[in-house]
Design a protein that fits this description.
The chain is mainly α. The protein has one domain. The protein has 2 helices and no strands. It starts with a helix and ends in a 14-residue tail after the last helix.
């Protein structure tokens, strides 16, 4: 009788340990899955931004009027002989 109780306790202990370890692994897998989803979303955003920049580069290289617009707006440059007037708000 006493041996049976010891065996039952031993089996329960082993099963409990296995369940604990399995639950811990499942939690880690779930966390990694969530992190993977975040990385995928960020990757898509970066890919979209990269494509937009590639299009902008192609336009700058091929379209002189667009190149001039970018130079004026983003770099603040002016043509020779032009004057810039700045107004305070």
């Amino acid at each position: 009788m006493e041996r049976t109780i010891i065996r039952i306790i031993l089996v329960i202990t082993v099963v409990s340990l296995m369940v604990y370890l399995f639950a811990r692994e499942i939690t880690q897998v779930y966390a990694l899955h969530q992190e993977n989803e975040k990385v995928k979303v960020e990757s898509l955003k970066l890919e979209k931004a990269n494509n937009e920049l590639m299009k902008k580069i192609e336009l700058i290289e091929s379209d002189d009027s667009y190149k001039e617009k970018v130079i004026r707006q983003e770099l603040g440059m002016i043509k020779k002989g032009e004057k810039v007037y700045r107004f305070q708000e």
